[in-house]
Amino acid sequence: MKWDEIGQMQCSVARSSAVLGDRWTLLILSDVFLGVRRFEDFQKRLKLSRTTLATRLQMLERHDVLRREQYQSQPVRYEYRLTAKGRDLFPVISTILNWGDKYYADDADVPIIRTHKTCGHDIQPQLVCPDCGEPVNERNMTGRARAAVASHPDVERGPFSRS
Amino acid sequence: MKWDEIGQMQCSVARSSAVLGDRWTLLILSDVFLGVRRFEDFQKRLKLSRTTLATRLQMLERHDVLRREQYQSQPVRYEYRLTAKGRDLFPVISTILNWGDKYYADDADVPIIRTHKTCGHDIQPQLVCPDCGEPVNERNMTGRARAAVASHPDVERGPFSRS
DNA sequence: ATATGTTAGTCCAAAAACTGGACGGTGTCG
DNA sequence: CGACACCGTCCAGTTTTTGGACTAACATAT
């Protein structure tokens, strides 16, 4: 299966993977949320090849996650900014950051300290049920999979298993 | 930069990317949360090459995300199960699913409907501040980056920018 | 007893993706 | 004028991924 074909699968994770699923894209997006916007800055910070960076930025633009915006003329230069769709990736980057902090941070030295401006506390955002407000995890969630998944009778257990 | 080196970077997103950042890993993990546990099932469902699947499973085992557990002898066979570290990826997969559902689901036809067992409602989990309980997003969060990031004076804006 | 099926891989050669570094274009500054 | 900043593209060499054949150890059916 080719990368492009993954984007055609009937599965939200698969389609998201077609966008997010490579070594660099998550890093680039993380930098964008940090305020990085320009080609040279991405390249200096991430040390990936210019070719790959150009390819990724074009891909993210094509998928409407970033948009190129002119910030000067003479010479004409563009910077990359998040679209609304891109901003909606905040929870994804944020939960990845939570996980990385938990398992990979050096000796209680969390690389990025996040503060909730509204209440002023340093926090790690948590997942809750928007209905009852209780925290959710793989044990208190179930899922009814649709056709594509349900057609595999082997899949009977787990939080997203068939009901 | 090589893949292995990314895991050495002083950045939780980078280190997580060294594990999660490829075309197949997110799909495999999503299937694991759906209850898939065996080599053949992964291969049939995801249609990736057996070689790549074997490589990925070994990598996830090496990173202590999955563990191989014998489920029969004669012949000896193993299945793959989540470790505690792996289960902690639930919020990551879940927020990716939210994003994919929002932007890629076919005509109001969400492929996996998730139910919160505790309260019984069909929901999409949301990110909140564990302190005040309010929803968080890229606008009401800030972050103080540490050395590695703070040394880049260009990074001044965005939710994780230096304070 | 032989044939067929199930499951978990490994091996190989071809195709695709990624790499670093040079290069091009367009401007500014001193 | 020379040096620098910025955003890319081009190229040849390396690494990764791919599909399909193949092994191995049993179980089950004929």
Features:
homodimer; 163 residues; alpha+beta; two-stranded antiparallel sheet; globular; DNA-binding
Task: Please explain how this structure is put together.
The structure is a homodimer of 163-residue chains. By secondary structure, chain A is α+β, with helices and mostly antiparallel strands. Helix content of chain A is 41%, strand content 16%. Chain A has 8 helices and 5 strands, in the order H-H-H-H-H-E-E-H-H-E-E-E-H. A two-stranded antiparallel ribbon of chain A has the order 1-2. Chain A is globular. In chain A, 41% of the residues are buried. About 7% of the residues of chain A have low confidence. Chains A and B meet through helix 2, helix 3, helix 4, helix 7 and strand 3 of A and helix 2, helix 3, helix 4, helix 7 and strand 3 of B. Strand 4 of chain A pairs antiparallel with strand 4 of chain B. The structure holds a DNA duplex (30 and 30 nucleotides).
How are the SSEs ordered, and which strands pair?
2 copies of one chain form a homodimer.
Chain A: H1 3-6, H2 12-20, H3 25-34, H4 39-46, H5 50-62, E1 66-72, E2 77-82, H6 84-87, H7 90-104, E3 112-116, E4 126-128, E5 141-145, H8 147-150
Antiparallel strand pairs in A: 1-2
Chain A binds a DNA duplex (30 and 30 nucleotides) through residues 1-3, 23, 38-40, 43, 48-55, 74-78.
